[in-house]
Amino acid sequence: MDTPLESRHHRLDTAIAYIARIFDMSGTPAPGFSDGVRGAGGWRLRDAAAMRQDRGVSNHPPAAVPDTLFADADDEARWRARFTAARVSLPNWARDAPDRNIYISNVSGVFEVYAWDRATDTHRQVTDRPNGTYNSTITPDGQHVWWFADSDGDELGSWVSEPFAGRPADKQPVAAVPGTVPGYPAGLGVGRDVVAVGVSNDDGTTIFVAKAGAPAEVVYRDEHDGGVAALSRDETLLAIEHSEHGDNRHPALRVLAVADGSTVAEKWDGKGKGLDAVGFSPVAGDQRLLVRHERRGREELLIWDLARDTEVELTIDLPGELAADWYPDGRALIVVHTHEARNTLHRYDLGSGTLTRLDTPQGTVGSADVRPDHTVEYSWSNAARPGVVRALFTDGTERVLLEPPGHKAPPSIELSDVFVPSEGGQVHALYARPANAPDGPLPTVFTLHGGPHSHDEDRFSAYRAVWLDAGFAVVHVNYRGSSGYGSQWRDAIEGRPGLTELADVAAVHAWAVEKQLADPAKCVVNGASWGGYLSLLALGTQPTLWAAGVAGVPVADYLAAYEDEMEPLRAFDRALFGGSPDEVPDRYVECSPITYVDRVRVPVLVVAGENDPRCPIRQIDNYLDKLAERDSPYEVYRYDAGHGSLVVAETIKQTAIEVDFTRRALGR
Prior knowledge:
It is built from twelve helices and 36 strands. It is α+β, with helices and mostly antiparallel strands.
């Protein structure tokens, strides 16, 4: 469980969200978080090349790039230090050689893959690419590191492999699984003799299986979204998630025989109820599969025994939602409990049903895993304290596991909670005031998370901290559509996305003004990905609430976005809207920011990636062209990468642009 502890399919979340979660930081306002597995795949292969050919020269006013944000040198150094401080992810170790590990770090200035030999305490940078690398794994024997090779952040590519100890300088990594085809990653299962690779493209989902080093063969192909979920320990069974029923937001499960690809078992909980296969038992010959379900309206756990064709729902008496993975002996689970934007860790004994809370501080657990000796390793932070990777030993003692070199990130300010009544129920919001701020209302940034099925948490954010340093209050809104608050809350946006969330944002805005947190004349709406979409939509549908808007990598023209995006993402939109634009055109028009562009009254900043396969550049240009026709005040920053950046300097640049733009828009 060394990836972020949530796997429901997200529309827009990607590498940057993954980085934000596992490192407990934010740079450019990223989409919420995703595990970066199935949700990362599927845009049309022709679009990646077409985007490069169709760029042209933008005539839109470029955003100013400030040299500094603060006149005081210490203040300037402090905010930059939060971004440049080296971070490490939770290590992922080789199953059969646990001293061999890989992790992600920004120590070079770019998030890349590193190898760590615990026996000798030696570290090696594996990847070194201009736009960074994050999607990686290590083979069970610890002999090879695999990483996903795309181009310029476009997410299109293939898995490659190199020795754990490194390759000669004049040699390139080799294809990890010969016989597969390039595409977008749709899950991966790596055993000693069997490898399963999911590939997504314009034709749908293809799953390849390679045995004993032979070329890969196709075991599954379908036009609908799907992917590899889990490979059994004995490498005889392969669990896949699929959406052949037409709803990739609520997937079903199928288990295939590795030997011939035949179906062994199926599980689907019906309309509006998804299933996530977490993993098979780590014990050889044990065919129990851990599954997350939502049969009672929240994320819970069950164990599906394929050998006996039985299942057991686990009754764990905790509020909120649950994620889990196996202890190495298969007798217990490590459970991550999410409730009101914070996490706790627990050990659940499968034999006795005993739940034991593990001693972790209040805040957010980004990821967790259990070593062979039952040491629990986890990444953690809260709003005030930067992220750290810790080891919790069986005797109750603990220590910092990895100390990256260089300076430490300066701390920030704690978040407070509020529950605000809205038309759909109580909206949970998190907020912070700057240190030593005067009494009374302040200029306030409402930062809207991406996803949409994600949520803001009590975790460290370098991005939030710079706004606080600049004198802004910051408000996060876990609007309807957010995960972490039950299935009904998450799915409440179906049929009317965007506008539903903004009703909750408006309720929190009203609360913030009433309580004199926010100056009503200086409220800014801000977000990226789905949050960027909401920001543009808010500027047009709630023009009296906002003094400025910042939208990073947004959906700006939903009809054009639908045309240019991949089929699995289109499938997500069909599930969300209740049909395609041909079937329910009025809904797409009603929920598209470009519909309301004539109502935008205030300055707008748009940040866009030239190679973004999730929110393609054409539909953003359509929106900007409309602003230009109206002679509206707006600025644009375009960068040469995809749906966000893994380069620290680029993140700092974008952050400075956003804060500087907002200050100028508010006359500060």
